[in-house]
Amino acid sequence: TLDRESYRSTLEEYAFSSLVDGSPLQTLFLSLADRVQDFKGAVRGPHGAKEARQHWNSTVATLVSCGGDTARTKETLESLAEALRTEGNIPGAHVCHIGARRMLERDDPASKIVLLGADHRSSKGRRTGFSSAACAFLTLMFDGSFKAKTDPVVSASLLPFMFSFAVSLVDNGELDMASSYCDLTLSTMQAYESAQKGMNLRYSRAFLLQLQEFDTRLRKKHGIKERGSGI
Prior knowledge:
elongated, Serine Threonine Protein Phosphatase 5, Tetratricopeptide repeat, mainly alpha, endoplasmic reticulum, two-stranded parallel sheet, 11 helices, about 230 residues, ER-Golgi transport
């Protein structure tokens, strides 16, 4: 019977001696060996890096499901995100950042947000890439799946896209539902404002006030009833 350390060492040795560097299968074995940080070393070579980029979605799925919610797993996902970003695969990098529970909480002009399903080729040089309400909904669902157990509110950087649903609802004649969606978004903004008093959150009050102004203009333009209290 192998002890835990011998078991890990055996898996790690097999991963590097017999499996393709940077492949999802190698990532799985490194995760089982609790050596997910070694994935960074595996993708430094040209072949390993190419393999990881080509099969990034399977690699991310492996890291998220098997790597655990650890600092090492998050660091590995961020390393893969950077590799994908330099290749122009912004949606892939975005998925990695969400998986690492990082990027979307930052109110930073240098950050890049591209919605899942959006065409990244049309978003070069722009801070945000918006394709459709469906893309925003997919991103919100993906983000929420990671935050459901720890944080009931939407990531701050996704709040502007919630208003896109309200516009789509107005276009389809659903004014009451659009009003409810605006109310939900405003409530989320107020929850952030309340939490900010006791937490070191990474977005500014100016960001929230800008969103509130957008909420007011949106309601006025489309005839959506006002909710009342502001931030």
